[in-house]
Amino acid sequence: MKADPMEAGGPPPDATAVDADLDGSAAKVQASYRGAMGRKKASEVKAGKQAGAAAAEYPTGDPNLEGSAAKVQASYRGSMGRKQGQKKKEEKQMETSAAAVQKSYRGLTGRKEASAKKEAKAQEKSATKVQATIRGQQARKGKGGPSSDAAPSDEVTVNIELNDGAATVHIVA
Prior knowledge:
- This protein is mainly alpha-helical and 173 residues long.
- It is 71% helix and 8% strand.
- It has helices at 15-57, 63-141, and strands at residues 157-163, 166-172.
- Strands 1-2 form a two-stranded antiparallel sheet.
- The N and C termini lie far apart (138 Å).
């Protein structure tokens, strides 16, 4: 930076020199401003050309074209809506199908359990009947029962075989 001549004790500055410095600074500021404005204007022109090209490619104001565009848009939106509706319908159908399969499986397992319980009850009833029959025979022969004093060698052996729900009884005296 230049030293101020007044402070240095030198002669007073020349007015023309100061004016030249100011003129140079002003010219730099003006040039910078003009450059910024020129770049801004150029970008606006470029954007305008692009918009103009799009406008020229798709002219507005023609009622047939505007109506056609609305029809195309409506058709597309309707198509997308139907696709979404179909998708929701398929999802609901899958859920309903899954529920039906689960219901069927639960019914099957329930029936199997009930059948197994019924079979076990029938086997127990058959075993009780066989026991009652044997005790009756022993009582009539005088060989068994709670009040008899039968020897251990007089015992009766009963073998019960269960095949497909039918009981086969083998009595060995």
